[in-house]
Amino acid sequence: MGKLSGKVALVTGASKGIGAAIAEDLAANGASVVVNYASSKAGADAVVEKITKAGGKAIAVGANVANPEEIGKLIDETVKAYGKIDVLVNNAGIFDPAPLEAITPEHFHNHFNLNVLGLLLTTQAAVPHFPAEGGSIVNISSVVATLAPAALSVYNATKGAVDTITLTLSKELGPKKIRVNSVSPGMVVTEGAISKGFIGSPFEAKAVEETPLGRVGQPDDIAAATTFFATDDARWVTGQIVKVSGGAR
Ligand code: NAP
Protein backbone atom coordinates (compact mmCIF):
# COMPACT_ATOMS: atom_id res chain seq x y z
CA MET A 1 0.00 0.00 0.00
CA GLY A 2 1.46 3.34 -1.08
CA LYS A 3 0.87 6.56 0.80
CA LEU A 4 -1.45 7.67 -2.02
CA SER A 5 -3.33 4.41 -2.60
CA GLY A 6 -6.92 5.13 -3.61
CA LYS A 7 -6.10 8.77 -4.38
CA VAL A 8 -6.50 10.53 -7.74
CA ALA A 9 -3.92 13.08 -8.83
CA LEU A 10 -4.09 15.51 -11.75
CA VAL A 11 -0.75 16.98 -12.88
CA THR A 12 -0.81 19.76 -15.46
CA GLY A 13 2.06 19.90 -17.95
CA ALA A 14 3.25 16.38 -17.21
CA SER A 15 4.50 15.28 -20.63
CA LYS A 16 8.09 16.14 -19.74
CA GLY A 17 10.36 17.86 -17.23
CA ILE A 18 9.28 18.45 -13.64
CA GLY A 19 5.63 17.53 -14.30
CA ALA A 20 6.56 14.12 -15.71
CA ALA A 21 8.74 13.34 -12.67
CA ILE A 22 5.92 14.42 -10.34
CA ALA A 23 3.37 12.24 -12.17
CA GLU A 24 5.71 9.24 -11.96
CA ASP A 25 6.43 9.76 -8.26
CA LEU A 26 2.76 10.22 -7.32
CA ALA A 27 1.93 7.02 -9.23
CA ALA A 28 4.80 5.14 -7.56
CA ASN A 29 3.18 6.11 -4.26
CA GLY A 30 -0.13 4.58 -5.34
CA ALA A 31 -2.11 7.44 -6.90
CA SER A 32 -4.08 7.11 -10.13
CA VAL A 33 -2.62 9.91 -12.21
CA VAL A 34 -3.87 12.13 -15.02
CA VAL A 35 -0.92 13.21 -17.15
CA ASN A 36 -1.95 16.47 -18.83
CA TYR A 37 -0.13 17.83 -21.89
CA ALA A 38 -0.64 20.68 -24.35
CA SER A 39 1.11 19.51 -27.52
CA SER A 40 3.39 16.56 -26.68
CA LYS A 41 0.99 13.61 -26.88
CA ALA A 42 3.92 11.25 -27.48
CA GLY A 43 5.67 12.55 -24.36
CA ALA A 44 2.54 12.13 -22.25
CA ASP A 45 1.92 8.64 -23.64
CA ALA A 46 5.51 7.69 -22.75
CA VAL A 47 4.98 8.90 -19.16
CA VAL A 48 1.76 6.86 -18.94
CA GLU A 49 3.53 3.79 -20.34
CA LYS A 50 6.36 4.14 -17.81
CA ILE A 51 3.82 4.36 -14.98
CA THR A 52 1.69 1.43 -16.13
CA LYS A 53 4.74 -0.77 -16.81
CA ALA A 54 5.78 -0.17 -13.21
CA GLY A 55 2.34 -1.36 -12.06
CA GLY A 56 0.73 2.04 -11.62
CA LYS A 57 -2.37 3.67 -13.07
CA ALA A 58 -2.38 6.67 -15.41
CA ILE A 59 -4.07 8.23 -18.42
CA ALA A 60 -2.97 11.08 -20.69
CA VAL A 61 -5.35 13.99 -21.31
CA GLY A 62 -4.58 16.76 -23.78
CA ALA A 63 -5.73 20.27 -22.82
CA ASN A 64 -4.16 23.70 -23.12
CA VAL A 65 -4.68 25.09 -19.63
CA ALA A 66 -3.98 28.61 -20.90
CA ASN A 67 -7.28 28.30 -22.77
CA PRO A 68 -10.22 28.52 -20.34
CA GLU A 69 -12.37 26.56 -22.78
CA GLU A 70 -10.12 23.49 -22.57
CA ILE A 71 -9.94 23.29 -18.77
CA GLY A 72 -13.47 21.92 -18.41
CA LYS A 73 -12.60 19.01 -20.68
CA LEU A 74 -9.49 18.21 -18.62
CA ILE A 75 -11.50 18.08 -15.39
CA ASP A 76 -14.38 16.16 -17.03
CA GLU A 77 -12.03 13.50 -18.39
CA THR A 78 -10.29 13.17 -15.02
CA VAL A 79 -13.58 12.66 -13.20
CA LYS A 80 -14.91 10.35 -15.92
CA ALA A 81 -11.83 8.12 -15.60
CA TYR A 82 -11.31 8.14 -11.82
CA GLY A 83 -14.43 9.69 -10.21
CA LYS A 84 -12.84 12.46 -8.12
CA ILE A 85 -9.70 14.57 -7.56
CA ASP A 86 -7.67 14.32 -4.33
CA VAL A 87 -4.47 15.98 -5.51
CA LEU A 88 -4.01 18.79 -8.04
CA VAL A 89 -0.50 19.77 -9.08
CA ASN A 90 -0.51 23.06 -11.01
CA ASN A 91 2.80 22.57 -12.78
CA ALA A 92 2.29 23.73 -16.40
CA GLY A 93 4.26 26.90 -16.96
CA ILE A 94 6.39 28.78 -19.44
CA PHE A 95 9.52 30.82 -18.84
CA ASP A 96 10.93 32.96 -21.63
CA PRO A 97 13.68 35.41 -20.76
CA ALA A 98 13.02 39.01 -21.79
CA PRO A 99 14.83 42.13 -20.59
CA LEU A 100 12.66 45.23 -20.07
CA GLU A 101 13.09 46.51 -23.63
CA ALA A 102 11.92 43.18 -25.11
CA ILE A 103 8.68 42.88 -23.11
CA THR A 104 5.54 43.02 -25.24
CA PRO A 105 1.87 42.66 -24.35
CA GLU A 106 1.98 39.23 -26.02
CA HIS A 107 4.92 38.11 -23.86
CA PHE A 108 3.06 39.35 -20.77
CA HIS A 109 -0.25 37.69 -21.63
CA ASN A 110 1.33 34.39 -22.70
CA HIS A 111 3.00 34.09 -19.30
CA PHE A 112 0.11 35.29 -17.17
CA ASN A 113 -2.54 33.35 -19.13
CA LEU A 114 -0.82 30.05 -18.38
CA ASN A 115 1.22 30.52 -15.20
CA VAL A 116 -1.43 32.49 -13.29
CA LEU A 117 -4.87 32.45 -14.94
CA GLY A 118 -4.53 28.81 -16.03
CA LEU A 119 -3.58 27.84 -12.48
CA LEU A 120 -6.54 29.75 -11.02
CA LEU A 121 -9.13 28.42 -13.47
CA THR A 122 -7.87 24.82 -13.21
CA THR A 123 -8.10 25.07 -9.44
CA GLN A 124 -11.58 26.61 -9.68
CA ALA A 125 -12.78 23.77 -11.91
CA ALA A 126 -11.11 21.03 -9.83
CA VAL A 127 -12.23 22.05 -6.33
CA PRO A 128 -15.87 20.87 -6.65
CA HIS A 129 -14.52 17.35 -7.35
CA PHE A 130 -12.46 17.05 -4.16
CA PRO A 131 -14.05 14.67 -1.67
CA ALA A 132 -15.50 15.83 1.66
CA GLU A 133 -12.31 14.70 3.44
CA GLY A 134 -10.36 17.31 1.44
CA GLY A 135 -7.07 16.93 -0.35
CA SER A 136 -3.98 18.77 -1.53
CA ILE A 137 -3.15 21.37 -4.16
CA VAL A 138 0.52 21.96 -4.96
CA ASN A 139 1.44 24.98 -7.05
CA ILE A 140 4.82 24.72 -8.75
CA SER A 141 6.27 28.17 -8.23
CA SER A 142 9.96 29.15 -8.44
CA VAL A 143 12.71 30.70 -6.34
CA VAL A 144 12.63 33.54 -8.89
CA ALA A 145 9.61 34.94 -7.03
CA THR A 146 12.09 36.25 -4.44
CA LEU A 147 15.51 35.74 -6.10
CA ALA A 148 14.27 37.98 -8.96
CA PRO A 149 17.03 37.43 -11.54
CA ALA A 150 17.45 40.13 -14.20
CA ALA A 151 15.82 39.89 -17.63
CA LEU A 152 12.92 37.80 -16.34
CA SER A 153 10.50 40.45 -14.99
CA VAL A 154 7.34 38.93 -16.37
CA TYR A 155 8.15 35.32 -15.49
CA ASN A 156 9.34 36.32 -12.01
CA ALA A 157 6.10 38.28 -11.52
CA THR A 158 3.98 35.27 -12.45
CA LYS A 159 5.63 33.23 -9.71
CA GLY A 160 5.17 36.05 -7.19
CA ALA A 161 1.50 35.92 -8.12
CA VAL A 162 1.45 32.14 -7.72
CA ASP A 163 2.80 32.42 -4.17
CA THR A 164 0.22 35.07 -3.24
CA ILE A 165 -2.52 32.85 -4.66
CA THR A 166 -1.19 29.92 -2.61
CA LEU A 167 -1.47 31.97 0.59
CA THR A 168 -4.92 33.27 -0.33
CA LEU A 169 -6.39 29.93 -1.37
CA SER A 170 -4.96 28.18 1.69
CA LYS A 171 -7.32 30.40 3.70
CA GLU A 172 -10.22 30.09 1.29
CA LEU A 173 -10.02 26.32 0.90
CA GLY A 174 -9.02 25.46 4.47
CA PRO A 175 -12.68 25.03 5.48
CA LYS A 176 -12.98 22.38 2.76
CA LYS A 177 -9.87 20.63 4.22
CA ILE A 178 -8.00 21.31 0.99
CA ARG A 179 -4.38 22.22 1.70
CA VAL A 180 -2.62 24.60 -0.72
CA ASN A 181 1.17 24.89 -0.84
CA SER A 182 3.85 26.16 -3.24
CA VAL A 183 6.93 24.15 -4.14
CA SER A 184 9.53 26.59 -5.45
CA PRO A 185 12.31 24.94 -7.44
CA GLY A 186 15.71 26.45 -8.10
CA MET A 187 17.14 25.83 -11.55
CA VAL A 188 16.26 22.32 -12.71
CA VAL A 189 17.55 20.44 -15.75
CA THR A 190 14.44 19.96 -17.90
CA GLU A 191 13.62 19.96 -21.59
CA GLY A 192 12.29 23.50 -21.17
CA ALA A 193 15.38 24.79 -19.33
CA ILE A 194 17.61 23.24 -21.99
CA SER A 195 15.61 24.52 -24.97
CA LYS A 196 15.50 28.08 -23.57
CA GLY A 197 19.29 28.03 -23.28
CA PHE A 198 19.48 28.24 -19.46
CA ILE A 199 21.39 24.99 -19.04
CA GLY A 200 25.04 25.33 -20.05
CA SER A 201 24.84 29.14 -19.95
CA PRO A 202 26.48 31.71 -17.64
CA PHE A 203 23.02 31.90 -15.99
CA GLU A 204 23.41 28.26 -14.90
CA ALA A 205 26.98 28.86 -13.69
CA LYS A 206 25.74 31.83 -11.59
CA ALA A 207 22.84 29.74 -10.24
CA VAL A 208 25.22 26.98 -9.12
CA GLU A 209 27.51 29.56 -7.52
CA GLU A 210 24.54 30.93 -5.54
CA THR A 211 23.42 27.44 -4.47
CA PRO A 212 24.84 26.20 -1.14
CA LEU A 213 24.48 22.59 -2.24
CA GLY A 214 26.51 23.44 -5.34
CA ARG A 215 24.47 21.93 -8.15
CA VAL A 216 21.36 22.50 -10.22
CA GLY A 217 18.31 20.37 -9.54
CA GLN A 218 16.91 17.31 -11.24
CA PRO A 219 13.16 16.80 -11.80
CA ASP A 220 13.02 14.04 -9.17
CA ASP A 221 14.33 16.48 -6.52
CA ILE A 222 11.13 18.47 -7.05
CA ALA A 223 8.89 15.40 -7.31
CA ALA A 224 9.93 14.14 -3.86
CA ALA A 225 8.91 17.42 -2.19
CA THR A 226 5.66 17.58 -4.15
CA THR A 227 4.70 14.06 -3.09
CA PHE A 228 5.28 15.03 0.54
CA PHE A 229 2.73 17.85 0.22
CA ALA A 230 0.31 15.51 -1.61
CA THR A 231 0.31 12.89 1.15
CA ASP A 232 -1.14 12.81 4.62
CA ASP A 233 2.39 13.36 5.96
CA ALA A 234 1.68 17.05 5.28
CA ARG A 235 -1.82 16.93 6.86
CA TRP A 236 -1.14 19.96 9.12
CA VAL A 237 0.72 21.97 6.48
CA THR A 238 -0.97 24.59 4.33
CA GLY A 239 -0.17 28.03 2.94
CA GLN A 240 3.55 27.27 2.81
CA ILE A 241 6.04 28.30 0.14
CA VAL A 242 8.93 25.87 0.27
CA LYS A 243 12.09 26.44 -1.72
CA VAL A 244 13.42 23.17 -3.12
CA SER A 245 16.55 24.70 -4.52
CA GLY A 246 19.68 23.41 -2.83
CA GLY A 247 19.48 26.47 -0.60
CA ALA A 248 19.35 29.09 -3.40
CA ARG A 249 17.11 31.96 -2.32
P1 NAP B 1 9.20 22.10 -19.50
O1 NAP B 1 10.32 21.13 -19.51
O2 NAP B 1 9.16 23.18 -20.52
O3 NAP B 1 7.81 21.31 -19.53
C1 NAP B 1 6.62 22.07 -19.53
C2 NAP B 1 5.42 21.18 -19.44
O4 NAP B 1 4.28 22.03 -19.39
C3 NAP B 1 5.27 20.28 -20.65
O5 NAP B 1 4.69 19.07 -20.23
C4 NAP B 1 4.29 21.07 -21.52
O6 NAP B 1 3.47 20.24 -22.33
C5 NAP B 1 3.42 21.70 -20.46
N1 NAP B 1 2.74 22.87 -20.97
C6 NAP B 1 3.25 23.95 -21.57
N2 NAP B 1 2.25 24.80 -21.91
C7 NAP B 1 1.09 24.21 -21.50
C8 NAP B 1 -0.27 24.56 -21.58
N3 NAP B 1 -0.65 25.72 -22.14
N4 NAP B 1 -1.19 23.70 -21.10
C9 NAP B 1 -0.83 22.53 -20.53
N5 NAP B 1 0.44 22.13 -20.43
C10 NAP B 1 1.39 22.98 -20.92
O7 NAP B 1 9.10 22.88 -18.09
P2 NAP B 1 9.74 22.53 -16.65
O8 NAP B 1 11.11 23.11 -16.62
O9 NAP B 1 9.52 21.12 -16.31
O10 NAP B 1 8.85 23.49 -15.73
C11 NAP B 1 7.68 23.02 -15.10
C12 NAP B 1 7.24 24.05 -14.04
O11 NAP B 1 8.32 24.25 -13.13
C13 NAP B 1 6.89 25.42 -14.61
O12 NAP B 1 5.81 25.96 -13.89
C14 NAP B 1 8.14 26.24 -14.34
O13 NAP B 1 7.88 27.60 -14.23
C15 NAP B 1 8.59 25.62 -13.02
N6 NAP B 1 10.03 25.81 -12.73
C16 NAP B 1 10.99 25.31 -13.57
C17 NAP B 1 12.31 25.49 -13.25
C18 NAP B 1 13.44 24.97 -14.13
O14 NAP B 1 14.59 25.40 -13.92
N7 NAP B 1 13.18 24.06 -15.05
C19 NAP B 1 12.67 26.20 -12.10
C20 NAP B 1 11.68 26.70 -11.29
C21 NAP B 1 10.35 26.49 -11.60
P3 NAP B 1 3.69 20.11 -23.92
O15 NAP B 1 5.09 19.63 -24.08
O16 NAP B 1 2.65 19.15 -24.34
O17 NAP B 1 3.52 21.49 -24.49
Automatic annotation (TrEMBL):
Keywords: Oxidoreductase. Pfam families: adh_short_C2. Residues 7-176 form the Ketoreductase domain. GO terms for molecular function: oxidoreductase activity. SMART domains: PKS_KR. InterPro entries: KR_dom, NAD(P)-bd_dom_sf, Sc_DH/Rdtase_CS, SDR_fam. Belongs to the short-chain dehydrogenases/reductases (SDR) family. This is 3-oxoacyl-[acyl-carrier protein] reductase.
